[in-house]
Amino acid sequence: MPSSSSTKPALTADAPVRRLAGVGPKVAERLAGLGIHSVGDVLLHRPRQYEDRTRIDPVSALLPQTSAQCVVRVEHAEVRMGRRRSLFVSTSDGSAWLGLRFFHFGSGQQARLSPGTWLRVFGEPRAAGYQLEMVHPEVEVVADAEAGHAITPELLAIYPTASGVTQARLRDMAAQTLALLARDDFWPELLPADLSGEALAMTAREALQRIHRPPEDTDLAALIEGNDPAVRRLSFEELLGHQLGLRARRRQIRADRAPAMREAGRGLGPLFEGLGFSPTGAQRRVIGEILADMSATSPMLRLVQGDVGSGKTVVAAAALLTAVDNGWQGAFMAPTELLAEQHYSALTGWLAPLSVPVWLLTGKKKQDEDARQAIADGRPGVVVGTHALFQQATEFGALGLAVIDEQHRFGVDQRLALRNKAAKKGRVATTAHQLIMTATPIPRTLAMSAYADLDTSVIDELPPGRTPIKTVAIPNSRREEVIARIGEAVAAGRQVYWVCTLIEASEKLEAQAAEAAAEDLADRLPGLRVSLVHGRMKTADKARAMNAFKAGDIDVLVATTVIEVGVDVPNASLMIIENAERLGLAQLHQLRGRVGRGSVASHCVLLYQGPLSETARSRLSALRASNDGFAIARADLDLRGPGEVLGTRQTGAATFRIADLVRDADLAEAALAVADDVLAYHPREADALITRWTSAGENYAQV
Ligand code: ADP
Ligand code: MG
Question: From CA 186, how far away is CA 333, in angstroms rounded?
Answer without folding.
Answer: 46
